Amino acid sequence: LNGSDWESKFTIKDGIKAIRSTPISKSFTKGVSLETIINELVNKMISEHSEISKGVVKDIPVFTFNSGRSLFGNCRQQLDELTKSFNLKWFIQDNTIYVLENNKAIGTEIILLNASSGLIGRPEKLEDGKGWRFKSLMRPGFNVGTWIKVESLTANGIFLPGKVIHTGNWK
């Protein structure tokens, strides 16, 4: 206004309301399966937040809670605990909730990333040595749960991102 430059910054996270604010208080009888409990948590988040839908929930290990199980608190905390204990991961992408086995993708598509397709600079090995950090031109297909084939001088292989951050400006 009146010759001033304005800049607005937004931090937008998929499903943040569902992640932060879905309470649960439920008990299950002995013999309940892990899959039943995970589906209950996912369905609870969906029922309280109409913008969230259920995506892929697969490869849940066959496990029975012999003494039953009680859930109390936040659905996010309960999902975090269960998925970590059973080598699973869960996330919300494009307002869709997914629960998958670690190192498994949502689908089979592989996106190529090299110097010709948008790779910026060289991939860097993570400090813990367990992965890579790389930058590319904005590609909306890059998401958690999507295979990416990287071809560069420092890293070559097919990777499954655990975290994706899209940043940029449109000036």
Describe the fold and architecture:
The chain has 171 residues and is an alpha+beta fold. The protein is 19% helix and 34% strand. The protein has helices spanning 16-21, 34-48, 75-85; strands at 23-28, 32-33, 53-57, 64-65, 69-74, 88-93, 96-101, 110-113, 119-125, 132-136, 147-151, 156-159. The strands form 5 sheets. The protein has a 3-stranded mixed beta sheet, with helices on one face. A hairpin with a 2-residue loop joins strand 6 (88-93) and strand 7. Helix 2 (34-48) packs antiparallel against helix 3 (75-85). The chain is elongated, with a radius of gyration of 20 Å. 17% of the residues are buried.
Précis, in short:
The chain is α+β, with helices and mostly antiparallel strands and 171 residues long. The chain has helices at 16-21, 34-48, 75-85, and strands at 23-28, 32-33, 53-57, 64-65, 69-74, 88-93, 96-101, 110-113, 119-125, 132-136, 147-151, 156-159. The strands form five sheets. The chain has a three-stranded mixed sheet with strand order 3-7-6, covered by helices on one side.
Q: How widely separated are the two ends?
A: 17 Å
**Order of SSEs, N→C?**
HEEHEEEHEEEEEEE
Number of strand segments: 12
Query: Overall mean pLDDT score?
Result: 85
In terms of DSSP E residues, the strand content is 25-35%
**Shape annotation:** elongated
The DSSP helix count reads 3
In this structure, how is the largest beta sheet organized?
3 strands, mixed
Q: How do the strands line up in the largest sheet?
A: 3-7-6
Radius of gyration: 20 Å
Fraction of residues in H or I helices: 10-25%
SS-derived structural category: alpha+beta
